Amino acid sequence: MVPVQEVVVIGGAGMVQDDEDTSPEIQEETVVKDNVISAAVTMYPNPAKDFVTLNITGIADGTDKVLVDIFNTVGQLVQSEQIPADGNYVNSVVTLNGLAEGMYNVQITVGNTVSTERMIIQK
After folding, report:
1. Which pLDDT value is given to residue 21?
2. So what's the pLDDT on residue 22?
3. Which of 25, 42, 102, 117 is the most exposed place for a label (fewest CB within 10 A)?
C-alpha cells in the first residue's frame, strides 16, 4: 500500500499547504488604467420636436469627435453626424432633419465607448 500525504486546503483558487511547516505564497497583482474617463451623456428635450441638445462631459483626452447615429424602431439608420469634441466636452444642437414622430434610438460613440439613448419625437 502507498502512504498518503495529508493535504490541507487553506484558501481558494488552489492554494494548498502540505503537512510540512511551509506557508503558501500569495501574489497580488494590481492593474491600473490610466486616463480612463467615463463620459456622461445628457440629451434634451425629450420628447423632442425639431432638435435635441447633446451634452457630453468627461470625454477622454485625445478624443477629437463624437459620432451620433439615429436609428428608427426597425433598426434602420436614418441620420448620422460627427460632432467635434471641444477638449473633454461636447455641447451641440442636433437638428432632427424632418424625422417623423415616433421613437428612435440615438447611438453615441465616444472613442471606444458606445452609449444608446431613447428619443421620442412629437410634433
Report:
1. 56
2. 56
3. 25
**Residue spans of beta strands (DSSP E) within 1-123:** 7-9, 16-18, 40-44, 51-57, 65-71, 77-84, 89-95, 102-110, 113-121
Residue 17 lies in a domain: no
57 SS3 class? strand
Compute mean pLDDT per 10 residues along the chain, 123 residues long, and list them. 48 48 51 50 95 92 93 97 91 93 96 91 94
Which residues, including other chains, have CB under 8 Å from residue 18's CB and lie 6 or more apart?
5, 6, 7, 8
What is the number of domains present in the chain?
A: 1
DSSP 19: S
Instruction: Identify whether the C-beta of residue 54 lies closer than 8 Å to the C-beta of residue 83.
Output: yes
Domain at 94, CATH number: 2.60.40.1930
Distance CA 120, CA 45 (A): 9
Domain membership of residue 105 (yes or no) is: yes
Range of the domain at 82: 40-121
Residue 1 falls within a domain, yes or no? no
Which spans in the chain are helix H?
none
